[in-house]
Amino acid sequence: MLRKPPMNTYTPHISVAPMLDWTDRHCRYFHRLIAPHVRLYTEMITTGAILHGDEDRHLRFHDNEHPIALQLGGSDPAALAACTKIADQDYGYDEINLNCGCPSDRVQNGSFGACLMNTPDIVARCVEAMRNATDKPVTVKCRIGIDNSEEFSFLNNFIEDISKAGCEMFIVHARKAWLQGLSPKENREIPPLRYDIVQQLKEAHPALTIILNGGIRTLEDARARLDVFDGVMIGREAYQNPYFLADIERDFYSHESPARAAIARAMVPYMIEQGELYGTPVKSITRHMVNLFHGIPGGRHWRQVLSTEAHKDGVDAGALIETALEKIQ
What letter would DSSP give residue 170? Predict the structure, then answer.
């Protein structure tokens, strides 16, 4: 069986998954305070939103967020190339990722996301166009299969076609996606995890970088998967228990993250800055922070204060955080 080198001989590729409506710039800034080394991904942004909408609102980010990857949704090579060029030259993203894994109806209606796994030739043309527009890595995030196509050959054929277009890194969610009959939430929970299929992919393509996504919730999970794969991508656990990222930092990067209270207080200048520059409400930022004290005595008080007070007009960010911290032990 293929094995990775000992952990002290290489730097693992650990990242936080792109999560629609969750991993916006405020969430990423918050996560970066906890974890300086993990790679952060934007939520999926469609090519149309960038080319025909408010480009800066969708693409701007804080310098502290590096290394940061932009995840694009689209299926038109020219549009994806144009967005890739903007993301690289105008904003300085470190990686451009193509979404081939989202199963939502809205994404399917736009002919991108997981349904693209049925058309690897189109994905290959998209990847080639994107690579021609940047020197930064162009990567693909996909599922192990869609609907009734879950066998290894389906995934392997898809990966082989896209790798011929020059993609060298694939992030594979180890669940298939049901395009009909399951909601996006159900698609994250009901199809069973099949790490064995992703492992078979890595063994068939040792030269490719294969990142495993799906079900990573503990340090033990991460360690076990990094024994086989080139990296792991953490999804809901990073949102539901964000200080888990401090364990990742300590265990894999020998870095001690600031204490939770220090992280909370460090968010105050950011909240003030975002309010002054863009009129960002405090609640738009604190919504990502409610689980900071997950499992800690006083955590319920923290959640209640942020949930009930942050939405009020004229709330003082510093006073809000200090009030929320009062009962933390």
Answer: E
